[in-house]
């Protein structure tokens, strides 16, 4: 049927003491009795070859990375983040600080009273931001009215409904016979939950929200307005929150179950030690030692939001954007959306 191909790589058991043989690119002559393949014999092209085959010269495999970069820069990518917390915790300011632009929802005009919604309302704003030729379609979803009522029973239901609706929308596009070349992705990739800086324990509302939402979305808890706490109070409050999460078996992002290799586990362990991040948001610049910095001016000085000695905002920014943005999207697609897809398809295939 054909001539057997000669392997260009040495077999696994080849020792270094053997004299190297001259390799030829011409296939060797095959005896006539071996021309006919025996039944059950696996062709060499299908047999597993040695790992780490050494190339004779430059092939250009590394150019794949440049191709992927060029394609991504042309098409851009999507990132959807949700911010949840009570009114007055600085959610909009924090989002503006993260992306260094006015990307959050517009607050009420100065002098006008902002009315608290009777129920949780979700407001999404989409922007296209560009940096060094890379375009990102950013969608910020705010949740005004969450935790602001006297009776906050089931106030997380509209949020859970919204997240599942985005999964359902993606699923309907995916199961079409004629699918779009690129399915629009409106799924929530990360949910930043703002914990009030009480300095005590997590409230039942905080525990119940994170317990329910951590099963369907990546939840990143942060301590809002951390400049209202001293460094000792902040460290003690953070330790209490970590104990609460461990006691109630709440797995926030980055989850230990999804660490793929020792390097990821070591990096994520350092992040898990710092969670929840104590953050301070500010979208105004101030002059400090001849430099323009983002910060909040107080009577005793200026709190620099990008200074690790003042707050942990740089850690949150690195987690959401610089180091784990793609991982947030991958876990959303491969874990949270996949579990929703399996559940929905099982429901549709269940006999009536």
UniProtKB/TrEMBL annotation:
Q: Where are its TM segments located? A: none
GO CC list: cytoskeleton
Q: Which GO terms describe its molecular function?
A: GTP binding
Report residue spans for region: Disordered: 1-41
Domain of life of the native organism: Eukaryota
What InterPro entries does UniProt report for this protein, alphabetically? Answer: G_SEPTIN_dom, P-loop_NTPase, Septin, Septin3
Q: Which UniProt keywords apply?
A: Cell cycle, Cell division, Cytoplasm, Cytoskeleton, GTP-binding, Nucleotide-binding
Any one biological process term the GO annotation gives:
cell division
User: What PROSITE patterns does this protein map onto?
Assistant: G_SEPTIN (PS51719)
Compartmental location = Cytoplasm, Cytoskeleton
One Pfam family of this chain: Septin
Q: Which residues form the Septin-type G domain?
A: 75-347
Which residues fall in a compositionally biased region of kind Acidic residues? 31-40
Q: Which PANTHER family match?
A: SEPTIN
Q: Which family does the similarity line name?
A: Belongs to the TRAFAC class TrmE-Era-EngA-EngB-Septin-like GTPase superfamily. Septin GTPase family.
Q: What is this protein called?
A: SEP12 protein
Identify the species of origin.
Elachura formosa
Instruction: State which gene encodes it.
Output: Sept12
């Amino acid at each position: 049927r054909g001539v057997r191909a000669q392997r260009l790589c040495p077999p696994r058991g080849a020792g270094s003491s053997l004299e190297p043989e001259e390799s030829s690119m011409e296939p060797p002559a095959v005896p006539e009795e071996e021309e006919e393949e025996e039944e059950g014999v696996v062709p060499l092209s299908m047999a597993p070859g040695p790992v780490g085959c050494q190339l004779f010269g430059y092939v250009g495999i590394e150019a794949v990375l440049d191709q992927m970069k060029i394609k991504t820069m042309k098409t851009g990518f999507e990132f959807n983040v949700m911010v949840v917390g009570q009114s007055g915790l600085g959610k909009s300011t924090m989002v503006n600080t993260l992306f260094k632009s006015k990307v959050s929802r517009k607050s009420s005009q100065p002098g006008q009273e902002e009315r608290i919604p009777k129920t949780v309302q979700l407001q999404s704003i989409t922007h296209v931001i560009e940096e060094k030729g890379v375009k990102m379609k950013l969608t910020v979803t705010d949740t005004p009215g969450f935790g602001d009522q006297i009776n906050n029973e089931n106030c997380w239901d509209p949020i859970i409904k919204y997240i599942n609706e985005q999964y359902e929308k993606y699923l309907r596009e995916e199961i079409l016979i004629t699918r779009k070349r690129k399915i629009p992705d409106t799924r929530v990739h990360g949910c930043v939950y703002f914990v009030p800086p009480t300095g005590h324990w997590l409230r039942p509302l905080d525990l119940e929200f994170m317990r329910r939402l951590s099963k369907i979305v990546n939840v990143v808890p942060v301590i809002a307005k951390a400049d209202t706490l001293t460094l000792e109070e902040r460290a003690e409050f953070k330790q209490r929150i970590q104990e609460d999460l461990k006691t109630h078996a709440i797995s926030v992002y980055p989850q230990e179950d999804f660490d793929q290799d020792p390097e990821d586990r070591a990096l994520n362990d350092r992040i898990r030690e710092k969670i929840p991040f104590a953050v301070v948001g500010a979208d105004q610049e101030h002059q400090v030692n001849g430099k323009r910095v983002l910060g909040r001016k107080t009577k005793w000085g200026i709190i620099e939001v990008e200074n690790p000695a003042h707050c942990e905002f740089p850690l949150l920014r690195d987690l959401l954007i610089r180091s784990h943005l793609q991982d947030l999207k991958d876990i959303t697609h491969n874990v949270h959306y996949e579990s929703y897809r399996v559940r929905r398809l099982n429901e549709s295939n269940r006999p009536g």
